[in-house]
Design goal:
By secondary structure, the protein is of the alpha/beta class. The protein has nine helices and seven strands; from the N terminus they run E-H-E-H-E-H-H-E-H-E-H-E-H-E-H-H. It binds adenosine-5'-diphosphate and magnesium ion.
């Protein structure tokens, strides 16, 4: 594994938490890992952004943010509003390749969902993944509505020539409802790719050790964890 692009079905689905969990496991097994956030929106210059959250949860991981815009908008709209130059997909791909020259694993976290624009030419995270030849990980919600959003993301990714590595549920509720339980089996079908993890919702205030333990429990062996999708699906459907 080299560069992995982390997208999601939308904003607030758990991309940053999943990115931090993958980084925590990589660090633990002694791989050098770096995290790139090409465009951070909705955060003032002195405020902590997604990368600060990654470092808080995963520990001292090298991180790089290319540009920050204060408005909580798409990178394209936030750049336009602020008068700052946009980040282009080639800026992002170049930064990822640079980080990759000195790290085993580079994680690239998008902003919002896959087709959110970086610039007025229509560049998106899909272009970043394509120019890097990097696989895409889709972070999805647990409940009702996630199957359609996941299928749309995976289908457009595939149509654009990307390899969808898998899908991870970013925030699994303590009391999953019928839709969430049922989605465990249907999400990999919607994604056309395996379920590579399920992280519990309570990770917000986890200590670093607790976070690492949950990352191990919740992420697939592909990332160095112990998550078994069949076992999880069995226990989810049994908890009716
Ligand atoms: N597994 C989780 N445990 C606790 N809080 C979570 C979890 N997943 C997401 N959140 C919270 O939900 C919000 C959105 O998550 P985040 O990872 O920032 O999503 P995204 O990066 O997709 O916008 C954040 O406030 C985050 O702390
Ligand atoms: Mg995020």
């Amino acid at each position: 594994m080299t560069v992995l692009v982390i997208s999601g079905t939308g904003t607030g689905v758990g991309k940053t938490v999943v990115t931090a969990a993958i980084a925590a496991l990589a660090r633990e097994r002694g791989d050098s890992v770096a995290v790139l956030k090409p465009a951070q929106t909705g955060v003032a210059p002195e405020e902590p952004g997604d990368l600060a959250e990654v470092r808080r949860l995963a520990g001292a991981v090298p991180t790089r943010e290319l540009r920050r815009y204060p408005d909580p908008l798409s990178p394209e709209a936030a750049a336009r509003n602020s008068g700052l130059p946009p980040v282009t997909p080639s800026d992002a791909a170049r930064a990822a390749a640079e980080l990759h020259s000195s790290h085993d694993l580079v994680l690239v976290e998008g902003a919002g969902g896959l087709l959110v624009r970086f610039d007025s030419s229509g560049g998106t995270l899909a272009d970043v993944a394509w120019s890097l030849g990097a696989p895409l990980l889709i972070v999805a919600q647990a409940g009702l509505g996630t199957l359609n959003a996941t299928a749309l993301t995976a289908e457009v990714a595939t149509r654009r020539g990307l390899n969808v590595l898998g899908v991870v549920i970013g925030s699994w509720p303590a009391g999953p409802d019928l839709a969430a339980r049922s989605n465990v089996a249907d999400l990999p079908v919607a994604a056309g790719a395996p379920l590579l993890g399920v992280l519990p919702e309570r990770l917000g205030h986890a200590s670093r050790d607790e976070f690492l333990e949950e990352a191990r429990r919740g992420l697939s062996p592909w990332f160095g964890g112990q998550f078994d999708p069949d076992c999880f699906a069995g226990s989810a459907s049994a908890s009716t």
